[in-house]
User: Which sequence fits this backbone?
């Protein structure tokens, strides 16, 4: 029995003239886990948004359990039994887990029946073995708990078809395994699932069939067992992209940036607990972990947005403790923020204005701007990542990928002393990713010190010389990536994953993991970070 | 003393409760002032024509709720900026009531229909004589009791009902509500309509309580109610407390008017000054509390 | 630029330039609505609607007196419109224009009454500068509170303004009132300080020309200067400005202070060029109308000029038509209301799409005041 069948689905966005999907057809059996693979921006998310009722298609039909349906809103999709769990789980943070589940599925009557709802939720939680308390506020949940809550909100309304958008993007490998166990149980009980991912090993692990979308078109829909990861990768990208990065120069020995016992406490909560590290010039130091485990807080402190409440920071040998964004920038720091819409650009300004915010002062005299020079400069920057847009256009008309390119073009145009990169590859297509990696190596060879913050382990592994793992506001481990060269990538992921989950308190890692700077005080064996 | 404070507090509280619902729904209505003004006028005009205060209250509630609904429908439907359209309502209400007053009563000044007495005050014999409690519970018009009942009802409504849950969800995270099949626009419209209902009562209480319609009878109460929402930490209980603070302040200014020789026209500035002082004080306090350790 | 742009992008490019807004649809609808509303009331209130509507359109053009006065009103609206636009561009909403304009006129009058013997140019210049400084101070408080304590400047500027109005009302109709006049007004300023009419017998004077110069100046400020660039970036996204090393607090304070200065200047020039005295409520409507004008103009300085002209034409037309109706009504408030109601409305069929998510974020950036 077919759970879902889509035929000839197309989507054209009149707002920016983009055809996001063209004539996509496939069918999903009941009890099946289907992977949908594709590059960033290929149209996977658009397809899922159509199936979940967030977007109306401009062409094509959808059938659920053999019945044709049209979705004008998520409410329609939900009542047809289709529910979506978004990449960043969309929960009401001030609601409890229970209220989040009840919302939209309150049951009969005007008044809420908290008690019977709680009983039903408890039953679901124990059925699937989730570690959740229905009374907890969503705000206080860890990322994986948030994701489980999002799954629960769907299970609570007896959703039979689950759509999951990059559910593993920010999970530690061990948690991915738990998620997949859940999905297999869900499928075994008759549910069906569509899983969007760009991680091929996961496709091979979980799915029976895999659909590949490239540039809005379905280019393959095949049995997973019949293809190799290489073949899939080829299908996703559509051609061979040679990755020959320029050779690395040996790292310098001068310490460029040093954080000594940096802490940050806000309103009684400890966000960073004496974090110490040193960055040499010409080195990429990658921080991985969950956003709420200190990644976000450390990004704030390093970028000068938030002050440290303890400890000291040195940049190029002089004190930079408490230096704010402007001071750091004038000392040669550049910053690509994780929250790009908030900190990375202004949607209300033009692309051109967004490109020149780093240099407008150099192109002015007596407070008056040289518009021609600015425009020429912006045009030059726009070419760097092939922005492919009129730079006079307002930024709010750009896609997410274009916005990220604007930020990268601006921040990576010079050779900064210190480069702070947070989630730099979000939304980028492969060609731009390649361009970015190329540029990072170039900058590293020029002696730029780079601090990378990433929730995506693969991204961090690809870019970093060393990887520091943050857990509960502390650095629990610092790995030297040179040691990973000869290791099986899956083992590497596993080792780092354990550190990210805080289950690895012991200091013995792969041979020689840490010829590095002294581990910060208090992060030694069994320092009590494990729950 | 307590009795007078309760009287002053009633319209603040009603308007602030109405505004609170819209704030929680994520679509704060700054048109409270205009709604109060229209509510006051309609209540008095209908009560004057029919001789029934109840008819006036009902007409006012129906008319202003419907107007608020239309306002919300337009603003949401056209994705207009609700601050700007709210200003439109405030500006229009002043002109509209003056015009209607001229058309219906032939004056733009005070309207006092013959035969319409100020609303009766209910005294509760057993309690009347008690200190504090007597003033708190006895000797008010029906609006004071109504405002308390409605405050309680609103708290229950927001916490315990499906619509209340959905209104709060719409305000906290519209996207998250949307993906749960809850249409935030629908619940915002309900909230905006409710604010019209509450402000109609606030206005009716003012005009029927005095038995007359005085131009600009709302005199900034809708604006001060907005500050009360903010000051009350966006909770029902907080809004009640904040309304009480403003009522005490205005009561003191009335006392001052009687004892010190401050010209009446100057005293018109007083409520705004007090509100401003409280507003700034609260902002400073909040900023201080969010500080790093 | 690339030779072939899709239509949608071309439109976007035009819209985003900081001069005139390319989108004339919203202003046209808003003004149309204002006209319709005003005429609707005239028709209801008038025994002879056709005549009244005739007066509506011809009134402002019927004589040099009416025409000049309309232009004179335009000059004031340009100034307050620029003031509102300046605040908007820095990311603030100045809702205290009424009080700032009144205070400006009051301060100017006080200075000119105190020094009647000064040469004309000195008195006028001093009065204008002092008024602007007073307005800057009053509005700057709100900017400071926003920058320092994150206290909503929309509320605080409104409260300060609302407190100022009765205080000045009291002063000009009480202690400072001219005992020899039956108006609620101060003494008249010396003739040496009065700007002469350039279209007698109307009140049109040099203030109109100054207003146009200032509009051109503000356009230059926004599009060609470092200050204007930083102000716009801050107004567009405060966090982003900070990440780029621009201090947003500076622009909140300066944006609001500049806005207050423009409002106060409008008030001062109304005294110096039109009323020659500070009478009770003389500036009433200047602030609200300025907001309407700035919104019609999409906060683009040069567009403020035609926006003010159209607005004052509708206003003057309605006022002259009302003289011929049976029931007078506040034409000003009606027109403001219609403009405010329609100016930000979007009449498009495009439903939902991707914009649903983008829109809510956008709204938050623009007017978001989540605690």
Assistant:
């Amino acid at each position: 029995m077919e759970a879902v069948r889509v035929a000839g689905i197309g989507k054209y966005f009149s707002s920016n003239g983009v055809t996001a999907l063209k004539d996509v057809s496939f069918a999903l059996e009941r009890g099946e886990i289907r992977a949908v693979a594709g590059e960033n921006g290929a149209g996977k998310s658009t397809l899922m948004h159509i199936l979940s009722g967030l977007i109306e298609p401009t062409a094509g039909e959808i059938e659920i359990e053999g019945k044709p349906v049209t979705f004008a809103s998520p409410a329609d999709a939900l009542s047809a039994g289709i529910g979506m769990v978004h990449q960043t789980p969309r929960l009401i943070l001030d609601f409890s887990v229970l209220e989040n589940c009840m919302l939209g599925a309150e049951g009969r009557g005007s008044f809420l029946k908290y008690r019977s709802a709680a009983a039903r939720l408890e039953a679901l939680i124990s059925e699937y073995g989730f570690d959740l308390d229905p009374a907890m506020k969503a705000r206080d949940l860890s990322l994986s708990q948030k994701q489980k809550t999002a799954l629960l909100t769907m299970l609570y309304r007896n959703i039979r078809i689950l759509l999951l958008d990059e559910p593993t993007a920010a999970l530690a490998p061990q948690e991915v395994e738990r998620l997949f166990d859940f999905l297999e149980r869900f499928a075994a009980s008759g549910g069906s699932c569509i899983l969007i991912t760009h991680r091929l090993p996961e496709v091979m692990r979980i799915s029976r069939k895999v659909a590949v979308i490239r540039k809005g078109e379905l280019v393959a829909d095949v049995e997973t067992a019949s293809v190799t990861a290489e073949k899939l990768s080829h299908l996703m990208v559509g051609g061979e992209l040679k990755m020959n990065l320029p050779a690395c120069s040996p790292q310098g020995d001068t310490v460029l940036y040093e954080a000594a016992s940096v802490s940050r406490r806000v309103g009684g909560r400890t966000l960073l607990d004496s974090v110490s590290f040193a960055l040499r010039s010409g080195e990429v130091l990658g921080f991985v972990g969950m956003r709420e485990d200190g990644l976000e807080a450390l990004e704030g402190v390093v970028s000068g947005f938030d002050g440290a409440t303890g400890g000291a920071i040195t940049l190029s040998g002089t004190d930079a403790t408490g230096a704010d964004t402007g001071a750091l920038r004038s000392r040669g720091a550049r910053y690509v923020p994780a929250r790009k819409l908030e900190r990375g650009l202004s949607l209300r300004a033009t692309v051109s204005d967004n490109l020149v915010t780093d240099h407008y002062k150099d192109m002015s005299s007596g407070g008056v701007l040289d518009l021609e020079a600015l425009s020429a400069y912006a045009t030059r920057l726009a070419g760097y990542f092939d922005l492919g847009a009129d730079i006079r256009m307002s930024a709010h008309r750009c896609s997410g990928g274009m916005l990220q390119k604007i930020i990268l073009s601006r921040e990576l145009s010079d050779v900064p002393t210190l480069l702070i990169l947070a989630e730099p590859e979000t939304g980028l297509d492969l060609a731009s990713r390649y361009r970015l990696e190329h540029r990072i190596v170039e900058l590293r060879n020029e002696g730029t010190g780079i601090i990378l913050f990433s929730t995506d382990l693969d991204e961090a592994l690809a870019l970093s010389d060393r990887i520091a793992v943050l857990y509960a506001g502390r650095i629990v481990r610092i790995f030297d990536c040179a040691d990973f060269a000869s290791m099986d990538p899956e083992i590497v992921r596993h080792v780092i994953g354990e550190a990210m989950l805080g289950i690895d308190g012991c200091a013995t890692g792969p041979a020689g993991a840490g010829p590095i700077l002294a581990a910060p005080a208090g992060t030694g064996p069994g320092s009590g970070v494990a729950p | 003393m307590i009795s007078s404070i309760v009287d002053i507090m009633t319209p603040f509280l009603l308007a602030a409760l109405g505004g609170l619902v819209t704030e929680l729904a994520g679509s704060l209505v700054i048109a409270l002032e205009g709604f109060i003004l229209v509510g006051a006028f309609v209540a008095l005009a209908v009560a004057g024509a029919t001789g029934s205060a109840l008819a006036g209250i009902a007409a006012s509630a129906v008319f202003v709720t419907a107007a608020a609904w239309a306002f919300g429908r337009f603003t949401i439907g056209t994705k207009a900026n609700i601050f700007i359209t709210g200003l439109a309502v405030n500006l229009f209400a002043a002109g509209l009531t003056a015009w209607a007053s001229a058309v219906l009563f032939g004056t733009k000044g005070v309207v006092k229909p013959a035969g319409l007495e100020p609303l009766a005050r209910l005294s509760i014999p057993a309690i009347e004589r008690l200190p504090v409690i007597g003033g708190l519970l006895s000797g008010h018009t029906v609006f004071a009791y109504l405002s308390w009942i409605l405050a309680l009802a609103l708290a229950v409504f927001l916490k315990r009902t499906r619509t209340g849950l959905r209104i709060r969800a719409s305000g906290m995270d519209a996207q998250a509500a949307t993906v749960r099949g809850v249409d935030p626009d629908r619940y915002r419209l309900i909230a905006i309509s409710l604010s019209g209902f509450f402000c109609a009562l606030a206005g009716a209480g003012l005009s029927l309580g005095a038995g007359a319609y005085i131009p600009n009878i709302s005199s900034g109460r809708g604006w001060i109610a907005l500050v009360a929402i903010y000051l009350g930490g966006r909770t029902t209980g907080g809004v009640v407390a904040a309304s009480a603070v403003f009522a005490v302040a205005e009561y003191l200014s009335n006392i001052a008017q009687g004892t010190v020789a401050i010209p009446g026209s100057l005293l018109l500035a007083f409520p705004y000054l007090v509100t401003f002082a409280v507003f700034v004080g609260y902002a400073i306090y909040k900023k201080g509390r969010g500080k790093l350790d | 630029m690339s030779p072939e742009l899709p239509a949608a992008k071309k439109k976007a490019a035009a819209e985003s330039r900081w001069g005139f807004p390319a989108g004339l649809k919203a202003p046209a609808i808003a003004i149309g609505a204002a006209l319709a509303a005003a005429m609707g009331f005239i028709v209801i209130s008038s025994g002879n609607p056709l005549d009244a509507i005739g007066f509506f359109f011809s009134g402002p053009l019927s004589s040099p007196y009416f025409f000049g006065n309309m232009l004179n009103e335009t000059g004031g609206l340009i100034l307050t419109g620029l003031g509102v636009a300046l605040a908007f561009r820095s990311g603030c909403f100045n809702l205290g224009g009424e009080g700032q304009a009144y205070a400006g006129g009051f301060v100017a009058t006080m200075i000119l009454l105190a020094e009647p013997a000064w040469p004309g140019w000195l008195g006028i210049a001093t009065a204008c500068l002092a008024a602007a400084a007073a307005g800057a101070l009053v509005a700057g408080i709100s900017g400071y509170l926003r920058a320092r304590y994150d206290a909503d400047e929309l509320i605080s500027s409104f409260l300060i303004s609302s407190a100022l109005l009765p205080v000045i009302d009291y002063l000009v109709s009480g202690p400072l009132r001219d005992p020899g006049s039956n108006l609620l007004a101060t003494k008249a300023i010396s003739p040496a300080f009065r700007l002469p009419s350039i279209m007698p017998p109307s009140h049109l004077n040099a203030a109109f020309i100054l207003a146009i110069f200032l509009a051109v100046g503000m356009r230059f400020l926004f599009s060609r200067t470092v200050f204007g660039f930083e102000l716009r970036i801050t107004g567009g996204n405060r966090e982003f400005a900070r990440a780029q090393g621009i201090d947003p607090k500076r622009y909140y304070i300066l944006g609001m202070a500049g806005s207050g200065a423009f409002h106060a200047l409008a008030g001062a020039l109304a005294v110096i060029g039109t009323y020659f005295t500070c009478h009770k409520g003389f500036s009433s409507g200047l602030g609200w109308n300025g907001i309407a004008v700035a919104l019609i103009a999409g906060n683009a300085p040069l567009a403020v000029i035609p926006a003010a002209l159209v607005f004052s034409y509708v206003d003057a037309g309605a006022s002259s038509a009302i003289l011929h109706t049976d029931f007078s009504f506040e034409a000003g408030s009606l027109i403001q209301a219609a403009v405010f109601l329609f100016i930000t409305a979007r009449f498009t069929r495009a439903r939902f799409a991707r914009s649903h998510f983008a829109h809510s974020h956008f709204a938050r950036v623009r007017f978001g005041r989540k605690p």
